[in-house]
Amino acid sequence: MLYGQVRNVHAVVDDACDHATHRVYEVVSGADGDRISPTSRTVRHTTGLVEVFGPGDTYTLAADRFHSSVVPEGGEAATIALGRGRPGSHDLSLGPLAGRSHHVSRQPLDAGERALAIRTITAHLT
After folding, report:
1. Rounded to an integer, what distance in angstroms lies between the CA atom of residue 53 and that of residue 122?
2. Largest Cα–Cα distance of the chain, in whole Å?
3. Are 31 and 46 in contact (CB under 8 A)?
4. pLDDT at residue 18, rounded to an integer
């Protein structure tokens, strides 16, 4: 964590037939964004371990675990995330049971936005 606070809320998922709360989605990332597609797998989701991280903290997240990262309301945080891909593996996410395939666009920051981000982060580090 560079600055701020993040809560990582781990999800406990059990494969479910009749009592599913979420569907598992496959996420395929490309230069223009993410293609998110529902799979046939449904699960029951409950909240598991909640971890809180602040400035200077480091942490890892297992590749086969679902989680959400939450910044406290009104707060902000900056982190650096390092990820590792595995050939043949797919990123997965939880979503609504009746969701459909969709695309989430991603646009890089322009030079002014990058400069503002760098100034904001460095101001919190000093």
Report:
1. 19
2. 53
3. no
4. 80
